[in-house]
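Quick illustration, no need to memorize.
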Amino acid sequence: MRGLKFLVIFMGVLILLGTSFLVFTIIQRGSKLIKPNEDKVINSAIEIISPTNMELKNVSTNDGKIIIKFEDENKFIIKILNLDTGLELNSILIKKE
């Protein structure tokens, strides 16, 4: 009888701990959804400096990104920028042989 009483109390404590962990996790994930994205600053103008002695070949946009292609006789550069922040996301350099 004593073992059964201990088991019931132990299971009650486990249920309380599990429930509190579940509530804590839900609150943590919910607070991430509410926070505003602070690093998303909308720029009205984006300034792009062309690489030295390179010709601008193409400019296109796709899914909130701007893709800029430069070319000269030795290499080909593709720059990918975020339209919202104006930051360069990636740059690809292709050397010609």
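The mean pLDDT is 85.
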